[in-house]
């Protein structure tokens, strides 16, 4: 699927960028929570790594620029 | 002049159509064809909103953070102001795009495209209007302390209960002059006053580190290589410093500064230049100078004072020259006054943009709105109201990311920017990194309040 089209068209009430921003927030939240689990409670670093990887992936997707002709219906 | 015409509300002309703004636009068009050195000097001459932003950022909060981080961690935390402003610069570039790409102000655009909760309420009233009033208490507390200490150095026993009047005398006229906004010459005058204050800060804090000494390799390492502070106190200090350096108030102030100067499509490069040379550079230099002075004087030594005020007095105690002692306090006063002007301007502009009240510089309520933060003079008597400041800081850390997300969406919305919508992956990525930092700061703040870290 065309990423730009997904980001700039409506899916239900919101455009794709809004859903991706919520996802970015969740992955961002995993970073400090995962850091506390790993560094202070000596638990698995999985959540921390997931947070970092998810943040990078979301930024890569969300940085896709809007196509000027589209985004008019959003 | 008849009584009727005296009471008639003034029609505020859009600053981008004033004679001066149109001349500036033509000059910028010509400047683009000039060689790089001439272009650089031309941009320096026209810069202004970036210095306003720097002057605003350099306030009691960022000063106290730099003092305590320098004393506690030496050179290790110098990266914080540099990195937080460097990522924040993408938001300032976005603010520039909004002003140069559309005539609709950003809070109005947020209201229109995302709803009044995101624009008028979150960005305007909470993150800017209320915060600008609350944060002035801290400026008065630090400023009146510095004035009283300055008077003591020159042998005048003037208490804090009187010295705060000096702060009012300097900040009120400049705030009113900038806050009226309808006169680009007055705006430029205040911007020049801010440049002078930044110059004073650079000079006096530079002189202080000439006395305390500087470790250049440690400075370069501290500036470029991020290192996390240890323990709960360190994390709280880190969060405080990051939010004190750049946040939604800084973006809105920069945005409104450009509107007041009549920026239009020709001004985008100037806006970016200004954010870097007027904002990032002086902020990083001044906060680094302050941190270095306290790192050299106190880091690694036992029994250092805990509060920034006591640390300042202790630092002055080790400076042998009376002139540099005086200069140090003058630097703090310049830092406080410039922030107070920025807070007054932010208070007024965010109030008008968030409410249906018409912005009329001749109306009776206009000085009240501009000077509302001056209630912070009570800070000279009672200090800053810690519980209120903590509550507002929490709300700001929440609204920073709400506004950040909304601004990112506007930057990618052709309904607002038309063909000036962001077309660069790098620009978008920078904005998203800034938003991620704000998200992490917010979550960390919540976790610290939940007591997730052990004391």
Largest interface: A-B, 27 and 29 residues
- Quaternary: heterodimer
The CATH architecture of chain B would be Orthogonal Bundle
The main pleated sheet of chain A reads as:
2 strands, antiparallel
Spans of chain B with pLDDT under 50 lasting ≥5 residues? 1-7
Number of strands of chain A: 2
Number of helices of chain B: 21
Separation of the first and last Cα atoms of chain A: 18 Å
Question: What is the molecular shape of chain A?
Answer: elongated
The residue-averaged pLDDT of chain A reads 87
H/E topology pattern of chain B? HHHHHHHHHHHHHHHHHHHHH
- Tally of DSSP β-strands of chain B: 0
Q: What is the tally of helical segments of chain A?
A: 3
Description:
With 74 residues, chain A is mostly helical. In chain A, 65% of the residues lie in helices and 5% in strands. In chain A, strand 1 (10-11) and strand 2 form a beta hairpin. In chain A, helix 2 runs antiparallel to helix 3. Chain A starts with a helix and ends in a 12-residue tail after the last helix. Chain B has helices spanning 3-7, 19-31, 36-46, 49-57, 60-73, 79-101, 106-114, 117-153, 160-180, 184-212, 216-224, 231-245, 248-260, 268-298, 308-318, 322-354, 365-371, 379-382, 386-411, 414-417, 425-449. In chain B, helix 6 runs parallel beside helix 12, helix 6 packs across helix 13 (248-260) and helix 8 runs antiparallel to helix 16. The chains are: A mainly alpha (74), B mainly alpha (455). Chain A binds chain B through residues 8, 17-18, 21, 24-25, 28-29, 31-33, 36, 40, 55, 58-60, 62-66, 68, 70-72, 74, and chain B through 401, 405, 408-409, 412-415, 419, 421-426, 428-429, 432-433, 435-436, 439-440, 443-444, 447, 452-454.
Summarize the structure.
The complex is a heterodimer of chains A (74) and B (455). Chain A has 74 residues and is mostly helical. Chain A has three helices and two strands, in the order αββαα.
């Amino acid at each position: 699927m065309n990423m730009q089209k997904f980001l700039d068209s409506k899916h239900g009430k919101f455009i794709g960028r809004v859903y991706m921003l919520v996802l970015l927030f969740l992955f961002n939240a995993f970073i400090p929570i995962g850091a506390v689990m790993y560094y202070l409670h000596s638990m698995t670093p999985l959540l921390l790594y997931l947070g970092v990887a998810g943040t990078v992936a979301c930024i890569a997707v969300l940085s896709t620029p809007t196509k000027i002709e589209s985004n008019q219906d959003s | 002049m008849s009584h009727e015409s005296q009471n008639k509300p003034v029609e505020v002309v859009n600053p981008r159509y004033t004679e001066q703004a149109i001349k500036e636009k033509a000059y910028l068009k010509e400047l683009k064809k000039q060689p790089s050195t001439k272009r650089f000097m031309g941009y320096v001459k026209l810069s202004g909103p970036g210095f306003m932003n720097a002057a605003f950022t350099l306030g009691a909060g960022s000063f106290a953070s730099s003092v305590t981080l320098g004393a506690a961690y030496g050179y290790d935390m110098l990266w914080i102001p540099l990195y937080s402003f460097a990522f924040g610069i993408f938001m300032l570039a976005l603010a520039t795009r909004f002003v140069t790409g559309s005539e609709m102000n950003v809070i109005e655009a947020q209201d229109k495209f995302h709803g009044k909760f995101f624009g008028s309420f979150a960005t305007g009233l909470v993150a800017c209007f209320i915060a600008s009033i609350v944060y002035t208490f801290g400026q008065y507390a630090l400023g009146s302390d510095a004035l009283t200490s300055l008077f003591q150095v020159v042998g005048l026993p003037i208490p804090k209960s009187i010295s705060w009047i000096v702060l009012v005398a300097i900040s009120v006229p400049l705030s009113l002059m900038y806050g009226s906004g309808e006169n680009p010459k007055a705006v430029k005058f205040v911007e020049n006053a801010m440049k002078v204050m930044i110059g004073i800060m650079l000079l006096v804090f530079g002189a202080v580190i000439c006395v305390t000494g500087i470790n250049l390799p440690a400075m370069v390492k501290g500036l470029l290589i991020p290192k996390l502070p240890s323990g709960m106190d360190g994390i709280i200090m880190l969060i405080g410093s990051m939010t004190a350096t750049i946040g939604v108030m800084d973006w809105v102030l920069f945005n409104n500064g450009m509107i007041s100067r009549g920026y239009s499509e020709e001004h985008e490069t100037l806006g970016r230049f200004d954010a870097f040379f007027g904002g990032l550079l002086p902020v990083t230099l001044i906060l680094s100078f302050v941190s270095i002075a306290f790192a050299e004087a106190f880091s690694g030594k036992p029994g250092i004072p805990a509060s920034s005020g006591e640390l300042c007095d202790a630092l002055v105690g080790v400076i042998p020259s009376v002139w540099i002692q005086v200069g140090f306090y003058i630097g703090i006063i310049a830092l406080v006054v410039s922030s107070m002007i920025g807070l007054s301007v932010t208070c007024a502009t965010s109030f008008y943009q968030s409410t249906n009240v018409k912005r009329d510089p001749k109306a009776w309520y206009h000085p009240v709105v501009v000077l509302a933060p001056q209630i912070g003079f009570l800070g000279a008597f009672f200090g800053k109201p810690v519980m209120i400041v903590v509550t507002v800081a929490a709300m700001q850390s929440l609204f920073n990311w709400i506004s950040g997300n909304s601004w990112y969406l506007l930057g990618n919305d052709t309904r607002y920017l038309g063909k000036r919508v962001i077309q660069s992956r790098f620009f978008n990525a920078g904005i998203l990194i800034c938003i991620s930092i704000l998200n992490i700061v917010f979550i960390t703040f919540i976790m610290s309040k939940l007591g997730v870290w052990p004391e």
